[in-house]
Amino acid sequence: MKKIFVIIVALLALVSCNMDFYSSDSMTSSQLADNPSSAVYTTDGLYTLLKERIAYKGQSGGESGNYYIRHYFQFAELRGDNITVSGKSEDPFTEAYMYSEDPTHKNIYYTWWMAYKIINAANSNIASIKPGDTALSDHLLGENYFFRAMMHFHMVTLFAMPYAQGRDNPGVPLRVGIDASTTTRATVGEVYDQIVEDLKSAKTYLANGEDERIKGGSKVYVSLDAARALLSRVYLYMGMNDECIAECNELMDHAPSSVTSGYDYADYPTHTYDHPETIWCLRLDNNDDWAGEHAEASIASMYIKDGNGWGEHYMSDILMDNFLRYPQDKRFTSYIGFTTANLSYPVAMASGKVTVVFPIRVNDKTNARSDAFAFDCTVNGDGSVDFTYQSKNYKAVPTTVNTYTEYYVQDASFPGEKLDGKARVFIRPNTNRSAGVRNNMGGDYLIYYCSKFSYQDGLPMMTSPVFLRWGEVVLNRAEAYAKKGGMDAQAIADVKLIRDRAGLTGDAEMTLANYASRGYATVLDLVLDERRKELCYEGHRAFDVFRNNLPMDRRFVGCHDWEILQPNDPRIAMLIPLDEINTSGIAQNKR
Question: Which of 100, 287, 300, 441 would bridge with 453, disulfide CB 3.0–4.6 Å?
Fold first, then answer.
């Protein structure tokens, strides 16, 4: 007992000191083996590292906003086409959003450093825990294999080209074992192969093991279902569709009833840690930094302005129009709204007064685009909208595109940016609530906020962020079915499951008979569109597009370039931190 007590005290001390490694990193595998109970604390340390603000390179304290999960969720989401950022910020997330990241900035070096810190900690634990010793030790061993796999997966998807671009492309350093000090980049294929092997090991030990901590519905510790869910995602990224379907089927055989029956979407972020939809999330509570003085650095802080939020991330016009095809969608009505009103599109049109919004070039020196606005515009009986911009009158004409209504201005002199030669405009609820007050705007941008990361314990900046959930599992299987050939009906059945629980039934239902008439060239297109809406803001979109060898159309307003990114664009692989380059000499990604 004395030894265990000393270890616990040492672990607590490490929270505040400038050790290179946290928890098990500071202990040899022989020390851990001599004190089996310590494996609980060192494994818990891996969860802590994901959410703690820890000093880097001898700092006196951690830098503001420097949390692994914050950086990861920003990197994963901002490089897609769901979010608009109106201008550059002191926060370095804007560089990642603009595909012009700086390898000396804290979000780059801290993410890399912390990922490998967790990998090294997991290596120490794996070396010290004796397989088959106890049910608990096997479970802990499975958790450590899971973390080693997940962190390598994060690194190879962020800092290397997609698997679909070739297995032989440079990946990231592969560090396996307590003596691992690899200073070369494994290939993308080698990294993925190791991830698969680690997740298979995780499944084996988690199936054999038992842990009182995950009983009673808690979703905050890694479980067998978590290993299966992550492996299904990895197989999907590798194009191993049969294997992906098999993992998903294992999961769906015991899925909770809410997966098919639906749930209260608005309630979900307030208690993801015990919600049936969650497979695994990282538990945060009001003792964490994010509930106090550093709440402005939470994931939510960029998505809403309530509490300490900055509210600098807005929904892109293209995603907004996608949702507005079916404004009864619970995912829209529960999470997305104006700053001061949540008026749906039909209500706006019926009111007779709307706002017309359209992209316009900022100036000749940048490829960024801003929003231009016309307020108090008149809705005509035929559905067209009359509006005035810069003292000239225009008409927005409704046009049916793939069975959905889009609006275009058919006037060559119209200054709005044109998409594929056509001047598209967007019809929104009227934002001019009182004379001269534009209370749904952030500068020259229309604001739709997202509350997916908010209101746990009533705190606007708080949720326990979800890494794996059942909605993704269903859509993983749907995508694998769609790619198999001859299994379109099964893919659409999974899409129907997701849409049904979101309230999209009746006329909104997608079927094998009608999906093509609604603008989808293939069932895969339908599945990817549904993934976009179901998983928006959760860090999937860019990966979904590029791993399917598709271009990313980023021609929407924001401080980024107005462009279409091709799936082989070298900028997809983020720049490796300069500290790593200088220390190990590994090659930097191309630009």
Answer: 300
Residue 13 scores a pLDDT above 60? no
CA angle 56, 59, 63 (to 5 degrees): 70
Cβ atoms of 150 and 137 within 8 Å: the answer is no
Helix or strand holding residue 480 (H, E): helix 470-484
Structure tokens at 208: 């054999």
DSSP SS3 for 572: helix
Neighbours of 320 (CB within 10 A): 21
* Helices of type H across 209-360: 224-238, 241-252, 258-261, 317-324, 330-335, 345-351
Q: Are 231 and 199 in contact (CB under 8 A)?
A: yes
Nearest-CA neighbor of 46 among 110, 124, 107?
124
**Residue 97 φ then ψ, to 5°:** -60, -35
Q: Strand, coil or helix: what is 166?
A: coil
d(CA 254, CA 276): 12
Lowest mean pLDDT among 40-54, 275-289, 331-345, 520-534: 331-345
Residue type, 412: A
Residue type at 156?
Answer: V
Q: What is the per-residue pLDDT for 180?
A: 64
Helix (H) or strand (E) holding 405: strand 404-409
**Token reading at 149:** 């796999």
> Which residue bears the tokens 């299987």?
477
Q: In angstroms, rounded to a whole number, what is the distance separating the alpha carbons of residues 92 and 80?
A: 17
Q: Is the distance from CB of 201 to CB of 148 less than 8 angstroms?
A: no
Separation of alpha carbons 269 and 232, rounded Å? 24
Q: Where does residue 293 rank: exposed (0-12), middle (13-18), buried (19+ CB within 10 A)?
A: exposed
Span 19-26, average pLDDT: 34
Report CA-CA distances (Å) from 100 to 92, 105, 108, 422.
10, 11, 12, 29
Q: What is the pLDDT of residues 387-439, one digit of tens each?
A: 999 999 999 999 998 888 899 999 999 999 998 888 999 988 777 544 444 44
Show the tokens assigned to 298: 């939470």
Q: Which 3 state secondary structure label does DSSP give 184? A: coil
The secondary structure of 22-36 as a DSSP string is -GGGGS-HHHHHH-T
H or E, element range at 397: strand 392-401
**Tally of CB atoms within 10 A around 352:** 12
Place of tokens 């706006």: 348
**Cα dihedral 186, 187, 188, 189 in deg (nearest 10):** -110
DSSP 338-389: -SS----HHHHHHHSEEEEEEEEE--TT-S-EEEEEEEEEEEPTTS-EEEEE
Classify 37 as helix, strand or coil: coil
Distances (CA, A) of 31 to 26, 127, 128, 129, 178: 10, 11, 8, 11, 13
